[in-house]
C-alpha cells in the first residue's frame, strides 16, 4: 500500500509539472539549480516525513521506482528513448586551466541493457573531426574514414561515463544492478536521498536525489588510477527540461577531485528518430 501511495504521488507530481505553465517549470528548475550551488555551513535538520503520526521509512526500490516515474515511466522511457539524436557543445578544461570547445552529435539505439546499447559520438574540434562508436560492450573509432583504436584513457572515460550515469539508475533492473539506500541527509540546503548502485561488474555509483522533486541532482564514483590514488568524480545534472514527456538535464558538469574538467550543453535532442544501423559498423580495410 505504501509503495502504491509513493508511486501515485510521484506520478501526480510529474503530470502536474507537464501541465504547469512554462514560467512555473522554469522557476522550479532555477530554484533547484540555485539551491544546489548554495553553500550551507550549518543546514537545519529536517525531520523524516510522518504519516498518521508515525515516521515513514522508504526503501531504495520505492525511491528509485518513483524516480523512474518522474523521468517518464519505465515503458515510456523504453519506447520513447529507443532511438535518439542529440547535438550539443562540449567544453573540456585542462589541468593548466586552458579550455577546448567542440561540437558533438550523439546517435544511439537502446539495447536490452547498457552493454547492448549502440552509440555513435561524432566530435568536431577546431583542428580535427573523429567518431567514437560503442557496440557489444566495446569501443572503437573512425578518423578520415579509417578505423582506429582509441587511447586507453579515452576508452576508460567513455565506458565510465556510460555506466556511471542516470540511465544506469533508470535501468537498474534491466542491467541486473543492486540498489541500497545509503541514507537521507541535508546538503547545500537540499533534502536528499542517497542511493548506492552496484552493477554486475562491481562498479559503484552513489546518486544524490532530491526528496522534493525526485530528480537526480548529482552522482559520485571513483575510478582506479594505475599505480596511484583513485580519482573521485562528481557529475552534476542541471537545467532539467521535459522532452517528449521524459525528463532530461540539458547541462552536465564533470568534476575530478574537486576540479571541473568537462561541461556539456545540449542544444537539441530528439527521440524516436530511426537510426540506421550502418553508422555503427566498422569500415572495411
What would the principal axes of the Cα set say about the shape? globular
Helix content: 10-25%
Output mean pLDDT: 84
Tell me the fraction of residues in β-strands, as a range: 35-45%
Contiguous low-pLDDT stretches (5 residues minimum) are: 1-6, 8-33, 37-48, 51-55
Number of helices: 6
| Secondary-structure element pattern, one letter each | HHEEHHEEEEEEHHEEEEEEE
- Structural class estimated from helices and strands: alpha+beta
**Could you give the order of strands across the largest sheet?**
8-7-6-5-4-3-15-14-13-12-11-10-9
Radius of gyration: 20 Å
How far apart lie the N and C ends?
60 Å
- The overall strand count is 15
The biggest sheet, with number of strands, parallel, antiparallel or mixed sense and barrel status, is: 13 strands, antiparallel
Task: Using brief descriptors, characterize the structure shown.
285 residues, alpha+beta, 13-stranded antiparallel sheet, 6 helices, 15 strands, 25% helix, disordered N terminus
General description of the model:
This protein has 285 residues and is of the alpha+beta class. The chain is built from six helices and 15 strands. A hairpin with a 2-residue loop joins strand 1 and strand 2. Helix 1 packs parallel to helix 3. The radius of gyration is 20 Å and the shape is globular. The termini are far apart.
Write the layout of secondary structure elements.
Elements: H1 2-19, H2 22-37, E1 50-51, E2 54-55, H3 60-71, H4 74-80, E3 83-93, E4 99-109, E5 118-124, E6 129-135, E7 138-143, E8 146-148, H5 152-163, H6 166-170, E9 178-187, E10 190-198, E11 204-210, E12 216-223, E13 231-243, E14 246-256, E15 259-271
Antiparallel strand pairs: 1-2, 3-4, 3-15, 4-5, 5-6, 6-7, 7-8, 9-10, 10-11, 11-12, 12-13, 13-14, 14-15
Amino acid at each position: 500500500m505504501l509503495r502504491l501511495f509513493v508511486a501515485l504521488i510521484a506520478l501526480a507530481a510529474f503530470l502536474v509539472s507537464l501541465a504547469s505553465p512554462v514560467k512555473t517549470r522554469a522557476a522550479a528548475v532555477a530554484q533547484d539549480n540555485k539551491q544546489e550551488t548554495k553553500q550551507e555551513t550549518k543546514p537545519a535538520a529536517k525531520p523524516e516525513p510522518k504519516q498518521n503520526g508515525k515516521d515513514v521509512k522508504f526503501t531504495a526500490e520505492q525511491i528509485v521506482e518513483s524516480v523512474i516515474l518522474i523521468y517518464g515511466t519505465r515503458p515510456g522511457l523504453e519506447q520513447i528513448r529507443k532511438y535518439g539524436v542529440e547535438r550539443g557543445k562540449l567544453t573540456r578544461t585542462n589541468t593548466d586551466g586552458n579550455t577546448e570547445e567542440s561540437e558533438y552529435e550523439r546517435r544511439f539505439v537502446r539495447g536490452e541493457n547498457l552493454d547492448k546499447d549502440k552509440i555513435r559520438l561524432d566530435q568536431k574540434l577546431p583542428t580535427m573531426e573523429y567518431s567514437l562508436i560503442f557496440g557489444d560492450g566495446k569501443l572503437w573509432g573512425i578518423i578520415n574514414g579509417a578505423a582506429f583504436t582509441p587511447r586507453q584513457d579515452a576508452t576508460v572515460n567513455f565506458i565510465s561515463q556510460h555506466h556511471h550515469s542516470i540511465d544506469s539508475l533508470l535501468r537498474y533492473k534491466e542491467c541486473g544492478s543492486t540498489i541500497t539506500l545509503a541514507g537521507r541527509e541535508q546538503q547545500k540546503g537540499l533534502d536528499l536521498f542517497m542511493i548506492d548502485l552496484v552493477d554486475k561488474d562491481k562498479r559503484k555509483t552513489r546518486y544524490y536525489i532530491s526528496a522534493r522533486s525526485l530528480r537526480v541532482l548529482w552522482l559520485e564514483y571513483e575510478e582506479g588510477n594505475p599505480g596511484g590514488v583513485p580519482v573521485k568524480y562528481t557529475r552534476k545534472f542541471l537545467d532539467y527540461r521535459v522532452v517528449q514527456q521524459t525528463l532530461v538535464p540539458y547541462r552536465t558538469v564533470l568534476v575530478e577531485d574537486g576540479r571541473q574538467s568537462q561541461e556539456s550543453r545540449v542544444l537539441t535532442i530528439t527521440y524516436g528518430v530511426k537510426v540506421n544501423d550502418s553508422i555503427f559498423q566498422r569500415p572495411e580495410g
